[in-house]
Here is the input.
Amino acid sequence: MKKKILPKVMRIILLSMFFIFATFPLYWIILTSLKPTQEIYSFPIRYWTNNPTLFGYKRLFEFVNFKRYFVNSIFVSLGASFVSTIFAMLSGYILSRKEFKWKYPIILFLFFSQMIPTYLIMVPQYTMFSNLNLINKLISLVIIYSGFGAAFSTIMAKGFFDRIPKSIEEAALIDGCNEIQSLFKITIPLMLPGLSAILSFSFVNNWNELFTAVMFLNTSDKYTVPVGLYSIVSKAGVQWNVLAAGIVIALLPTIIVFSISQKYIIAGLTQGSLKD
Here is the structure.
């Protein structure tokens, strides 16, 4: 009996330690955002506060136009996510269902394109967008993020399409549907969990991207949330409670997205129980 209990106890202890280790940074950020300034720099370090305050949040919206940054990020992240997901849906379907000469080289290219560091293509990319008069415009980030996310999203979409039996589409064709009707009426509804997973991962990547946004956005009214947080540090040193408040607010969209689409993401990642 003791031999059976001991592994369970060890498992609980290890999982508890992992949970504490994983959630402590989030707890510390939230705590810092609620601490008065004097408590942040007090020593010894305090792991709680007896005087919680919303000064950091108030200062965040007074000191910078954080509301504008938030709206800009929503526009860029959602726009790029939808574009890359639609592209991935169509291209993933072709790579999954069709056979043509350059199919496997294209798949290999999509894989290897993920290994190219962003900064290697930044100079020619900046030059091209400058010639097109797209510097300091949010649409430029939508275009760039769509391109960055399309390769990874296409690879994911192909994997999800591969798991859907072709016999379902063949049955639809026998019943009188053409190929396009079969795709949009049969296959894509079955792919909704997978598309939700692709859209969610794409949104999070776009929301958190900083390097490209810093390079392409020059005025504060165009800043996204990561660039806005970066500007807080550069403008006023490190006001930890203000910065922590900004991080907490920046986390909200990703938490909401994953909370809403959690069951679809799990269904998409575990999709494939059906076989031809």
Observations:
- The two ends are 45 Å apart (CA to CA).
- Confidence is low (pLDDT under 50) at residues 272-276.
- The first helix runs from residue 2 to 34.
